[in-house]
Amino acid sequence: MKLIDKTAVVTGGARGIGLAIARRYLAEGARVVIADIDEASIDAAVVELQGDDSDKPVMGIRLDVCDRDSVARMIEAVERRFGAIDILVNNAAVFDMAPLLEVSEAMYDKQFQVNVKGTFFTLQAVARAMVERGQGGKIINMASQAGRRGEALASIYCASKAAVISLTQSSGLALIQHGINVNGISPGVVDTPMWRDVDALFARYEGRPLGEKKRLVGEAVPYGRMGLPDDHVGAAVFLASDDSNYVVAQTLNVDGGNWMS
Known about the structure:
Elements: E1 7-11, H1 16-27, E2 31-36, H2 39-50, E3 58-62, H3 68-82, E4 87-90, H4 105-133, E5 137-142, H5 155-175, E6 180-187, H6 194-206, H7 212-220, H8 233-240, E7 251-254
Parallel strand pairs: 1-2, 1-4, 2-3, 4-5, 5-6, 6-7
InterPro entries: KR_dom, NAD(P)-bd_dom_sf, SDR_fam
GO molecular function, one term: oxidoreductase activity, acting on the CH-OH group of donors, NAD or NADP as acceptor
Domain Ketoreductase: 6-188
């Protein structure tokens, strides 16, 4: 119960890693806010987390991280319901890929709009509220092993996640003077529903049968398999708790040994 009496907002929290983190935060005693753009998925996530107990401190709210007014409304709604935000998990992101010579401006704009601009301005808005409150806080940005290296078919996604790692470093240095720890988590290949789409794109561009790329990347992980959403919740609890008070501007690799840095 490391997060008792804390309020945590998880963007993109209605599925995948975000939902796994929200589930664990609730078990650790936090009040949990599922902030996502998909209202149907929000409702389903809230029902799942509350189970038979509608009094569990779970809140769902629609959030478009690309819309700064939407971010402001989210913060106001959370403060009305639960009080100040103690923990922010910047998890909302999108993925797309194409050969370098086929990347469109729309693909570029969408990934940077959500993955970089959305992450930064959500972080900025929540950090302002934390600074005004004067009691510090924890901010966790979800990066990716793709941000540690290049990939021929995912140039824009890799660049956007490299930007997230860089923003984590800069904002961590800027905000620790206010008692706000900013750190990141860098997952590797994770078995979520999104991987069906990723696998289909690899099948298209690499001429592979459906399912082959997913099998190959799983076999290549030193741990012996793809990651699961629940593999990331321990790091997320650590970075949100007092155990990480002396950890500043770091991005932890949680990837089964895929990348060492």
